[in-house]
Prior knowledge:
signal, elongated, Phylloplanin-like, Phylloplanin, alpha+beta, binds 2-acetamido-2-deoxy-beta-D-glucopyranose
Amino acid sequence: MATKSLLLAALLVLAVSLAPHGAEAAGKQPPLAMISGVVPCSAGNSINVAAVPPFPNAAVQMVCGRDVMASATADRSGTYTMNMGPATSSLLAPLLGNQCKVVVVTPLATCNASLASVTGTLTAPVQLLGIDTGSGNGSGSGSGGLGGLGGLIGLIGQIVGGLLGGILNIIPLPFSVV
Ligand SMILES: *[C@@H]1O[C@H](CO)[C@@H](O)[C@H](O)[C@H]1NC(C)=O
Ligand SMILES: *[C@@H]1O[C@H](CO)[C@@H](O)[C@H](O)[C@H]1NC(C)=O
């Protein structure tokens, strides 16, 4: 896993260096990086959000390394959406390096007083899902899965080269208390 991250980080650097003209050349804004999910009102490991109550009004943050990249408040059903802004290489690098996670800032006791004794923070790792270029159905490049590592590298290259706009979808993996 660590080796793969290093490889991806190296490829990102390569992609940046091979695309000297960047987004201006192709005239597209980079895609917006978006993430959404549901916060569980539960403690544990790899929590299945469908099997436990949601955490209404939870404050969540996207943290990459030590930086808070975005924040949001969940709605009454525990659903949150965060817009991390343009997917530039300063966001893609920590994402590919597995340095980003969703952190629930509101204490668990807020949704269930019997969880007051839980020490730790609900945290979810994140994963790049794919891109929705917003160009409708059909031949849109790469909506849906990334088709493995090769697809991911191609996607990053296209983003860095300014060839793709739209929405870059990032998904949270299950929350755990850490
Ligand atoms: C609160 O948490 C406790 C301990 O996990 C659990 O047994 C209980 O069902 C929860 N209450 C609600 C309303 O979810
Ligand atoms: C998009 O979907 C509509 C309805 O399903 C279909 O008629 C149309 O041909 C599709 N367009 C492309 C480019 O696939």
